[in-house]
Write a structure and sequence with these properties.
single chain; 6% helix; globular; five-stranded mixed β-sheet; mainly beta; 25-stranded antiparallel β-sheet
């Protein structure tokens, strides 16, 4: 690290010492044409060069140049790019007010430039496959759903899991799941440090605070050494607003959903300070049974601009929430009890209780500093932190009891809703009131963390055509994981004992090695605000208690050349990541600290673009990643034992594209091929029958986790998106993606239970199997028509095909294709003096025709498959099928027709 600091200091001194030539100045002010207000943050560049700047809070800019005449390009996400000629007769020229109009198409150019930490495609000349979604569309389309709903009309993007509950959706990009798609918040990485996953319930307020979302499919434009195998999704939040004002809004929806929001901005005052604040509350019963939820969102931002060289912005945002969850079920269960069936809840003395509740509070804070060192050198830095507290509840002990009901579809009785009255009575009958493994309580699996990091980027414009970026990315993370009791259900406490492991990591014989026991009697509230400020004492933890520390340090650099028609770039990054695990519950004191593991990873990317005949552009990019494995794959089966098979995952990406843009029509065609090997994939399933795996007997409702590693994936495909604007009041847009995503080779599968005990290990042939969890072929068409000024109707149609089960299998199960249609109505009524305020009305209806479809499956059962039941082997589904799928398969039906309405007053 000392060597790197010295090198960074030397590089900074070298760049600062470069010759500075006599320059002229171009000045002007950029105006938002819709609201007639200054536009802060617009990119200003001299055509054919990399020399550029951005507008300040008042929309003003000043650009130094050695040339006396030329053209400047003014661009901003969501606005039409404008090119203006200039001639300098003396030492400066003022271009006056430059008005930018909204680009209703939302399809952004790929040949763009910019600065700083936030690598959005509109701010670079390096072309990529990209889609940008503005705040207006996010707020209109998301409604009551997760922010992932805003991305459904994007090529090669598939959203699933909505039936699990509020915040339980998942997104895949080009067939790669969330742990292989990089998610950034204002340029800072937000994928989980332990497993790379995203939990959208922690980001339930994102639709309120996002200024725009950019989905960069494939290699992406980020300079960081991040996991952009499938792509990069960058959420750029609102900063301190430039003008005074605010809004209040109210929303209602199906399933008794209600949301209220209020925001106020001071605007940037004469002293350079400004503040923006937003607060919201939401609650609802959930689309499916037993998926109630409630939460809040807060966003506080402070800005300070002391002069033209420095700009500071601090923000903190969080979304404390709790929501009850629905797990996958057999198709036969849904057909018998309804598509909204969920058996994770019950009643105690008539009061609703859920066994499975997710609760979490994760504030995120960052401090941004933009420093214009001189006319050709700038430094952008973000210092960030997050603190997560919360977890998920579930059953503890084997004393679970469920109601037995007749399934009208199968004609047989089966266990359904949880019988909490019987459980409570059984617990009361315990002689001493202290529960053991034969009783039942509700526990919470806690996942707390603290995460701190810094990202800094120095940009030097070497000349009009060449610029250099280099910087650093440092992160440190500490996670704590344990279980605590949240509801004893009539018991006075809980006691358990366990043998303590030594350095062999196996469960020892309690007769020959030490053991430990403990009794707990405290219960803990699952309110996310309570959980954030209160943690269990060590003597009140059950089942497990371990933590990990992950440290990450990386440097990156990029060299980019461009002129009027041609641009090329080379980019590289290298990082070191270290891991150590500490197990305080299952190990003897002297063996609680694991071996420390460090891995070096790197990536290199390069590409070029050529523009011809004004309206046409082609590009090609290539990149290679040597990516360190995630923490959860380094240590075997959640013990301190290091996995000897783990190595860096290798990713090779190749892509090329063509873009056409005219005044009324824009289209992009992209081709890609990505290979991913030495990879690890983990899935889980809920047992629907008593089953024996290895030597372990498992019960209905138990969760089995499967870890597959060693197999190679090859993803290739074509993507098309277009926008047609034949008249000023009609927008037509569409997309298509045709992919071929397959496994190559064999996989090692390890299965373990919910308590992290290994069950078995097998070698599986996956060669040629289809990758599941996302539709490989998708089509979409949408239109928006403005009948009269400020009144419009829009509709979107999507078709999903070649969707396979979310399992790793050679002969994977293909789900039926399906179509969805969404519609919306918007009206903006101008009010107040000079019509500066507005009242916005928005109504959405999703799945207008109430399409019945399977959105995902987590099993791969054929009609002639059988499983082991209580009375021996029995044929799964008894030959019954639903749309060609054996009804013993587990999964989710997609949501039926839903609606939401929002009323918003802007002032």
């Amino acid at each position: 690290m000392k060597i790197f600091k010295n090198a960074l200091l030397f590089g900074f001194m070298f760049i600062s010492a470069l010759n500075v030539f006599s320059q002229s100045k171009v000045t002007g002010t950029v105006i938002d044409g819709e609201f007639n207000q200054p536009l802060s943050g617009a990119s200003i560049t001299i055509k054919g060069t990399t020399k550029g700047t951005t507008t300040d809070f008042d929309g003003k800019f000043q650009l130094s140049t050695e040339v006396k005449s030329g053209q400047i390009i003014i661009s901003y996400l969501g606005f039409e790019t404008k090119t203006i000629s200039f001639n300098i007769s003396s030492n400066s020229v003022d271009l006056g007010n430059i008005v930018l109009l909204t680009d209703a198409s939302q399809l952004q150019e790929v040949v763009v430039i910019g600065k700083g930490i936030i690598d959005v495609a509109k701010e670079r000349k390096t072309p990529i496959a990209v889609s940008t979604i503005k705040a207006v569309e996010i707020q209109e389309k998301v409604g009551t759903a997760d922010v992932t709903q805003a991305m459904v009309n994007t090529p090669s993007v598939y959203v699933a899991g909505q039936a699990g509950g509020y915040g339980d959706s998942r997104i895949t990009v080009r067939g790669f799941q969330q742990d292989n798609t990089a998610f950034l918040l204002n340029g800072q990485p937000i994928n989980g440090m332990e497993d790379g996953k995203m939990y959208w319930s922690n980001w339930s307020g994102m639709s309120d605070i996002a200024n725009f979302i950019q989905i960069q499919r494939g290699l992406g434009s980020s300079k960081l050494a991040i996991s952009s195998v499938g792509g990069t999704v960058n959420f750029v939040t609102k900063a301190t607003e430039k003008s005074q004002g605010g809004f209040v809004s109210m929303g209602v929806a199906n399933s008794d959903y209600f949301k209220s929001t209020a925001a106020y901005n001071t605007g940037i005052m004469k002293n350079g300070f400004g503040a923006s604040v937003m607060l919201s509350h939401w609650q609802g019963d959930g689309y499916n049974q037993g998926t109630r939820g409630e939460g809040q969102n807060y966003f506080i931002s402070f800005g300070y601009k002391p002069n033209d060289r420095h700009n500071f912005n601090f923000l903190i945002t969080g979304a404390p929430q709790s929501h009850d969850q629905n797990f996958t079920k057999r198709i036969s269960d849904y057909l018998g009890f309804g598509r909204k069936y969920n058996n994770n809840f019950g009643y105690l003395n008539g009061q609703y209780i859920s066994e499975r509740t997710n609760f979490y509070h994760k504030p995120v804070a960052n401090l941004n500093w933009d420093f214009n060192i001189n006319s050709s050198t700038s430094l952008s830095t973000v210092l960030y932190a997050s603190w997560g507290r919360g977890g998920g509840t579930g059953n503890y002990g084997s004393g679970k009891r469920s109601l037995s009901q007749l399934n009208p579809y199968t004609g047989s009785n089966q266990n359904t809703y949880i019988d909490f009255d019987q459980i409570y009575a059984n617990n009361l009958a315990d002689s001493d009131g202290i529960g053991t493994s034969s009783n039942y309580a509700i526990r919470a699996s806690m996942n707390n963390h603290e995460w701190y990091g810094i990202v800094s980027n120095l940009k030097k414009e070497i000349n009009d055509n060449l610029n250099l970026n280099f910087g650093l990315d440092l992160r440190t993370y500490n996670g704590d994981h344990y279980r605590q009791i949240t509801n004893y259900l009539g018991l006075n406490g809980w006691t358990e004992s366990r043998p303590l492991r030594d350095n062999t990591h196996v469960v020892p014989n309690p007769n020959t090695l030490p053991s430990a026991s403990n009794t707990v009697n405290q219960s803990y509230n699952i309110n996310p605000w309570y959980a954030f400020f209160n943690t269990a004492d060590d003597n009140q933890k059950v089942d497990y208690d371990y933590s990990e520390t992950i440290s990450y340090g990386g440097v990156f650099g990029q060299l980019e050349y461009s002129n009027d028609n041609f641009s090329t770039f080379f980019q590289g990054a290298i990082s070191n990541q270290s891991h150590q695990r500490f197990d305080y519950y299952d190990y003897q004191d002297q063996y609680q600290d694991s071996e420390k593991v460090s891995n070096v990873g790197y990536n290199v990317k390069g590409g070029a673009a050529y523009n011809f005949a004004e309206k046409h552009a082609v590009y090609a990019n290539a990149g290679y990643y040597s990516r360190q494995p995630y923490h959860d794959n380094i240590y075997l089966n959640f013990t301190n034992q290091v996995n000897p098979l783990t190595e860096n995952e290798k990713v090779l990406g190749l892509e090329a594209g063509y873009t056409f843009k005219s005044k009324i029509f824009t289209a992009s065609l992209n081709a890609y091929r990505t290979t991913w090997e030495d990879r690890v994939v983990t899935t889980s399933t809920v047992l629907t029958a008593n089953t024996t795996i290895g030597t372990t007997n498992l019960l209905v409702g138990d969760i089995v986790v499967s870890s597959n590693q060693g197999v190679k994936q090859v993803h290739s495909g074509l993507e098309l998106d277009f926008v047609l604007k034949p008249t000023t009041n009609l927008d037509v847009k569409g997309f298509a993606s045709v992919g071929n995503w397959e496994y190559n080779g064999n996989a090692i599968r390890r299965r373990f239970d919910e308590n992290l005990n290994i069950l078995d290990e097998t070698l599986t042939d996956l060669d040629g199997g289809k990758v599941g969890d996302a539709a490989q072929t998708t089509w979409g068409l949408g239109a928006k028509y403005e009948f009269i000024k400020n009144f419009s109707i829009d509709a979107d149609w999507r078709n999903y095909d070649k969707l396979y089960a979310n399992v790793a299998a050679k002969d994977n199960l293909e789900l039926p294709s399906y179509d969805l249609v969404d519609m919306g109505i918007s009206y903006k009524m101008l009010v107040g003096k000079e019509k500066q305020n507005s009242i916005n009305f928005r109504f959405n209806m999703n799945n207008v025709f109430d399409e019945v479809y399977l959105s995902e499956l987590t099993s791969n059962i054929k009609t002639d498959a059988f499983i082991s039941g209580n009375s021996g082997p029995t044929y799964q589904s008894a030959g019954r099928v639903y749309k060609g799928i054996a009804d013993g398969n587990q999964g989710y039906f997609g949501l039926g027709r839903t609606w939401n309405f929002t009323l918003r007053y802007n002032f």
